[in-house]
Every structure is written in C-alpha cells, then in structure tokens.
Description:
By secondary structure, the chain is mainly α.
Amino acid sequence: xxxxxxxxxLLLIVIAGPLVIALLFLKxxxx
Length: 31
C-alpha cells in the first residue's frame, strides 16, 4: 500500500512540476 502511495506522489510531482514552471513562465511573460 505504501508503494502505491509513493508511486502516486511521485507521479503527481512529475506532472505538477512542469505545470508550475510553465505557469511561472506565463506569469513572467505577461508582466
């Protein structure tokens, strides 16, 4: 069960990471 939680958290980090960076770049570009 812990392995599944670790995999899902890792997947969230892998997906959310680039999204947050893209949002930051968009905000800087709009300014």
